[in-house]
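hi got a favour to ask and not much time before my train. below you get a single protein, a line of residues and a line of whole numbers that encode the local backbone shape. could you go over both lines and see whether the tokens make sense for that sequence. a few lines back from you is plenty, here it is:
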Amino acid sequence: MSSLRNAISRRAHKERAQPSSRKKFGLLEKHKDYVVRAKAFHKKEETLRKLKEKAAFRNPDEFYFQMIKTRTVDGVHKPENQANKYTQEELMLMKTQDIGYILQKLQSERKKVEKLTAVLHSVDNHPSNRHIYYAEDREEARELQSQASESRVTPPSGDIPDPIKRKTTVSYRELEARKSRVNQLEKLYMEMTLKKELQKKDRKRKLREDELTCPTSKPVYKWRSERKR
């Protein structure tokens, strides 16, 4: 019966608009607007009730170690600075793992660039169909040469289909993007390697500008040579 009742079309009762004499008071609040406002009000009311209940049943002897490690600034809890959270050995280990990941991505991008370059090179340079004939004497060689020159057909140069041209263009763009990514990864790898070496306890010093053979904007360091056992 409920399905039949829903099948019958009913008149849609619309809410009235704001009367013209009350337009200065803005839009007339509809029932759906009241529902949204009432839900928001009751949600805030329930939050305040739970906070009051938690404050009423608070244990004055409650303690946990996070209380020592945090401080209140304008009513907001802020933890202490955790810059020295890890030891020097742990930082070196994490740095090594990061460098290993960058090196892996760099090698992967290089392989992709080499593969894409080889494919595009083979597409651009079409292999010539050459046949080798062996003649007994010069007369037979001249005859074979004349037959080959007559049967030779020059391939048309401008009849490449448009889809192939578009795919080739897209491949060249991808090649340029991957080359730029390889350059960025190489720079990042060199910078991370330098930072890792600077963290070590070896004796080193920064070279002055007059000591550089090739002037550069980046700092250059020189390590003291030590005899390894």
Notes: Residues 53 and 59 are 12 Å apart (CA to CA). The beta strands are 70-73, 76-79, 204-206, 221-223. The chain has a mean pLDDT of 81. Residues 162-199 form the longest helix (38 residues).
